[in-house]
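pls design
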């Protein structure tokens, strides 16, 4: 993916978030090399559980470094314990991958959890990214935790 496409993808992710949920920076906390760069937790339109609607719910994961990162075994989890485990995913340097909730065919830019129900709560939730050793890499909260990062 080109640098222009990565910047565009990050910009789209930031626009999709309410301002408070898009604010990743807390005083004294440096941004990780790999981080959650965007969340669309409330898919546009009616929540009718169609695959289209489910795939409009997503989380963007960005690698801000020049080097590729092996995400094999990393997890993305919500507060209720719904967990997506990255399998055989290499995130190129300065690129973003979008993790959709619904069913689809994985590509370099889009991964699918293959779920038939929504994961991210519209009123409040936390998206937590952990590496293959279970260490916290990044998290983003919205709603009652608005703008909070643990």
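designed seq:
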């Amino acid at each position: 993916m080109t640098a222009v496409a990565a910047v565009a993808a990050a910009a789209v992710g930031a626009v999709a978030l309410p301002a408070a949920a898009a604010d990743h920076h807390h005083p004294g906390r440096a941004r990780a090399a790999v981080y959650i760069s965007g969340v669309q937790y409330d898919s546009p339109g009616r929540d009718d559980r169609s695959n289209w609607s489910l795939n409009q719910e997503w989380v963007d994961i960005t690698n801000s470094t020049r080097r590729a990162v092996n995400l094999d075994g990393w997890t993305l989890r919500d507060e209720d314990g719904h967990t997506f485990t990255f399998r055989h995913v290499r995130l190129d340097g300065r690129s973003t991958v979008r993790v959709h909730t619904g069913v689809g065919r994985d590509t370099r830019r889009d991964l699918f959890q293959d779920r038939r129900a929504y994961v991210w709560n519209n009123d409040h939730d936390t998206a937590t990214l952990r590496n293959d050793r279970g260490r916290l890499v990044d998290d983003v909260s919205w709603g009652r935790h608005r703008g909070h990062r643990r």
